[in-house]
Amino acid sequence: MVSIMQSSQQWVEKYRPRKVKDVAHQEEVVRVLTNTLETGSCPHMLFYGPPGTGKTTTALAIAHQLFGPELYKSRVLELNASDDRGINVVRTKIKDFAAVAVGTNKRKKGHPCPPFKIIVLDEADSMTEDAQNALRRTMETYSKVTRFFFICNYVSRIIEPLASRCAKFRFKPLSEEIMSSRILYICKEEGLCLDAEALSTLSSISHGDLRRAITYLQSAARLFGSSISSENLISVSGVVPEKVVEAVLQACRSGNFDFANKSVNNFIAEGYPASQMLTQLFEAIVEENDISDEQKARISKKLGEADKCLIDGADEYLQLLDVVSNTMQAFSNMPERFAYEC
Amino acid sequence: MLWVDKYRPKTLDHVMVHTDIAHNLKKLVTEQDCPHLLFYGPSGSGKKTLIMAVLRQMFGPGAEKVKVENRTWKVDAGSRSLDIELTTLSSANHIEISPSDAGFQDRYVVQEVIKEMAKNRPIDTKGKKGFKVLVLNDVDKLSREAQHSLRRTMEKYSVYCRLILCCNSSSRVTEAIRSRCLNVRINAPSEEKILEVLELIGKKEELQLPPGFAARIAEKSNRNLRRAILAFETCRVQQYPFTNKQAIPPMDWEEHISEIASDIMKEQSPKRLFQVRGKLYDLLINCIPPEIILKRLLHELLRKLDAELKHEVCHWAAYYEHRMRLGQKAIFHIEAFVAKFMSIYKSFLIATFG
């Protein structure tokens, strides 16, 4: 069974940095945490930023470095969105864990083991407001023995009283160079061959999200073997190829409804995800030079509406057709109100 | 046996349409341990065929010996306990279920039932292939909560159990699940491919195909291979030898909808609306999914309309389909669309012809 476990291990886990100083591109937080490692004192922390920038990695790394493998289990509580985190859990599980006192400061083999416990709340923005409110008092009461690490994508979804009790750190999206160097390192370790074009494709389709880049890389490696081209990466990522987006835009420009309808039909038959198409259409429209700002605004508004509808579970074909028809009207400057609407 | 089943490729080597995908899948399954898979693509493109072929590749011919079972699970949901009934298709090594059949209780299916299945690890005397495969259909119809619960299950039991997920639109599957699977996009076969398959079946059945006949079926099929083969067989039953001008029979529900479309083009009045209601009910009680009705209706109307009205009509179709998804009773929304269309069309007629 060991062999299965090894071969199916996610590279994301395999190449997760184990030490705080290995976390790339986030100098500020690394400096503060290195300081913590030396002095053994630490505030409550709030990490926020886009996915795949190293928030969870940093939190887990500091916890491991502080306590070492022996004490880790008793000193660190990890909760993420797939665990139940309603108000009941906050009132019982978190409170109980936070309330337990810890032993005195005994240094063990290079781990500082400061006299507090850590509770890591991953994806904290998906906690309900009630649950967050219930945490306020808990944080203060047990601040002597417990530190909270909140991790979230949107800092605006963390209620103000919680945010003000923490030291906030923003995690920046990774720059292309850092991403490339990490990817190349993994390729070297895994014996993959990745050309320059594929590398730049990988950075562009993953939008600064290192985890996504590594996942794509692993999927492509599993499916296509050790030499990976940029088409391979696009096909596993579910990104719609540039050509297809261009064709749909072209259909919008043509002003011919039946032609556009056909291109939408084709698009659906090819099985591309419509939500992905909306994102890419949006990017293409914003970069377009020869249409006015007003037209762009009109198209973007519709894209937003259609995205919401898709999330609600509406039909992909109808929504996409609506978007395309709207774009066509915007391109040819037809009035926004329908002529026969009553 | 229907031709659709008779000529379904059984192994990855025999797949005709997605040869490159089949080749890659074969490499994946034979060379190394396979990850969770997510197949997505329009219906009739061959997702299920590929999944069955993958299973066969993994477990040998034993994977085809399936038995259908109706099982009931008792699930504790907080204070009360629920009975969930599900149809499972299982062989020694794999289980196939459609968790969305449980409706709003799908969360419990995902949390409890799958967990229970995933826990029981098959024991092989050789100590090999100690995992089983769970095939989940229609994951895009699962509720948000169910999908969230699924992702934890996927990680926790990944040693004992591989999931193969199958859905039509990957937009409705959350990013968290998609990123945990190897995504395989299955596109609808092109008309040439369908033609190829039809000709092969024709040859195997020793039929005389007049030139252009198979091409017409392929064109009518809307790039849906299953539909093409079914239509082909229907033609065979209706009349053989084939003649050049033989009509390809459309589905009767499609004919019905096209009737509705011409009805509402002819007259726009409350009385006509009432008549149309009866026809819509006919379709609904015959289990034609409401969104398909609406889509087909739009398709028929677009064929008949003037260019300037098309934008407007397709906007309202999208609008009412979305409302239908949020609401409960489909008939209201389809009828609302029909009424809206009538009012638009009437004002158009008045504006043009006075």
Summarize the structure.
The complex is a heterodimer of chains A (342) and B (354). Chain A is α/β, with parallel strands linked by helices and 342 residues long.
- CATH names the topology of the largest domain in chain B as Rossmann fold
**What is the rounded distance between the termini of chain A?**
68 Å
Question: How helix-rich are the residues of chain A, as a percent range?
Answer: 55-70%
What is the N-to-C order of secondary-structure elements of chain A (H for helix, E for strand)? HHHEHEHEHEHEHEHHEHHHHHH
Widest beta sheet: strand line-up of chain A: 2-3-4-1-5
The computed structural class of chain A is: alpha/beta
Largest interface: A-B, 56 and 59 residues
Q: What is the general shape of chain B?
A: globular
Protein structure class of chain B: alpha/beta
Q: What ranges of chain B have pLDDT less than 50 throughout 5 or more consecutive residues? A: none
In helices, the fraction of residues of chain B equals: 40-55%
Please compute the radius of gyration of chain A using only Cα atoms. Answer: 25 Å
Strand content of chain A: 5-15%
Rounded average pLDDT of chain A = 84
* Tally of alpha and pi helices of chain A: 16
Q: Let me know the largest β-sheet of chain B.
A: 7 strands, mixed
Structure, described:
- The complex is a heterodimer of chains A (342) and B (354).
- Chain A is α/β, with parallel strands linked by helices.
- Chain A has helices at 2-7, 11-14, 27-39, 55-75, 87-99, 129-141, 160-164, 176-190, 196-206, 210-224, 230-237, 242-254, 257-269, 274-287, 293-312, 316-331; strands at 45-48, 76-79, 117-121, 146-152, 167-170, 193-194, 227-228.
- In chain A, the strands form 2 sheets. Chain A has a 5-stranded parallel beta sheet. In chain A, strands 6-7 form a two-stranded parallel sheet.
- In chain A, strand 3, helix 6 and strand 4 (146-152) form a beta-alpha-beta unit.
- Chain A is globular, with a radius of gyration of 25 Å.
- Helices cover 53% and strands 13% of the residues of chain B.
- In chain B, helix 5 (144-156) links the parallel strand 5 and strand 6 (161-167).
- The interface between A and B is large, with 56 and 59 residues.
